[in-house]
Design brief:
CATH architecture: Alpha Horseshoe
Helix content: over 70%
Shape: globular
Strand content: under 5%
Order of helices and strands: HHHHHHHHH
Number of strands: 0
Distance between the termini: 51 Å
Number of helices: 9
Radius of gyration: 17 Å
């Protein structure tokens, strides 16, 4: 990682920019997209190797520093699912829904984990979001069908 060169903002301006989504914590700290991608590649490699706890720590860092990048939340949720922490996985998968970053896969995974831990209402809402987001993406037809099937079962 290169030296961190923070963006010259006072704390109040920085907080407001982050909350509005105009600025990520990554940008504020001067971490480059290339550095984030390198960390992501490391986390993904660890995940693929079955080292879920190690990968989880890197995905947590990535998600904290750029909360609007859904692949970080998918990675974090995947690690938590693999570690049998379904409640934690649901929380990670739900973040793209909260920050309104369209990622139908995250919405579907959130629904599956929410249902598994007894959060049926949250699962139904996540499924509705998955269907809406998948409808906007022709490449997500299979995912949309899965979400619609699960939705029909949970909210007849």
């Amino acid at each position: 990682m290169s030296a961190i060169h923070p963006t010259p903002l006072n704390e109040a301006e920085a907080a407001q920019s982050i909350l509005r989504g105009d600025l990520s914590y990554r940008q504020l700290c001067g971490i480059t997209p290339e550095e984030m991608e390198s960390a992501y590649a490391s986390a993904y490699t660890l995940y693929q190797a079955g080292k879920y706890a190690d990968a989880e720590r890197i995905f947590q860092f990535l998600a904290l520093f750029d909360s609007h990048e859904p692949k970080y939340w998918l990675g974090l949720g995947g690690c938590r699912e693999a570690l049998k922490n379904l409640a934690g996985a649901a929380e990670a998968y739900l973040i793209p829904l909260v920050v309104d970053t369209p990622e139908p896969q995250a919405a579907l995974r959130a629904a599956i984990c929410c249902e598994a831990v007894g959060r049926t209402e949250d699962a139904v809402e996540a499924l509705k979001t998955a269907v809406a987001w998948a409808s906007a993406d022709p490449g997500s037809a299979i995912l949309k069908a899965q979400a619609e099937s699960m939705l029909a079962r949970l909210a007849p």
